[in-house]
Amino acid sequence: MSSSSDFLAVLANTLESRLPSNGGNPESSYVAKLYHKGPDSFLKKVGEEATELVMACKDADKERIIAETADLWFHSMVALGYYGLRPEQVITELARREGVSGLVEKASRKE
């Protein structure tokens, strides 16, 4: 299997192909249907999946934690694609933060 970042890039390309501007068909694609309905549809899914992940963690159900994390990541990638962003940009941001104290990093943000 290729690297995780390669897989994320392939998935991002697939999601991008489902955008209305790229001919995504809401009749035949779940992602195209979300995109067609607009941000509220996929943002609701991000919120639902985040809540389901929290509940799986509270139950310490490892299989559900993995499944719900996958659902959350997937719907987060749908959001990234809608806004013309790529998972590589998220990976770059995570790499930038590596070795930086979380407290220091948070304090450096413009809020």
TrEMBL record:
Subcellular localization: Cytoplasm
Q: Which domain of life is it from?
A: Bacteria
- One Pfam family name is PRA-PH
The reaction(s) annotated as catalysed by this protein in its Swiss-Prot or TrEMBL entry are: 1-(5-phospho-beta-D-ribosyl)-ATP + H2O = 1-(5-phospho-beta-D-ribosyl)-5'-AMP + diphosphate + H(+)
**What keywords does the record list, in alphabetical order?**
Amino-acid biosynthesis, ATP-binding, Cytoplasm, Histidine biosynthesis, Hydrolase, Nucleotide-binding
Q: Write down any Gene Ontology CC term.
A: cytoplasm
Question: Which GO annotations describe the biological process of this protein?
Answer: L-histidine biosynthetic process
Identify the enzyme class.
hydrolase
Give one GO molecular function term: ATP binding
Q: For this protein, what is the EC number?
A: 3.6.1.31
Q: What Gene3D superfamilies does the record tag this protein with?
A: MazG-like
Pathway(s) of this molecule: Amino-acid biosynthesis; L-histidine biosynthesis; L-histidine from 5-phospho-alpha-D-ribose 1-diphosphate: step 2/9
Q: Which family does it belong to?
A: Belongs to the PRA-PH family.
Protein name (database record): Phosphoribosyl-ATP pyrophosphatase
Organism of origin: Pelistega suis
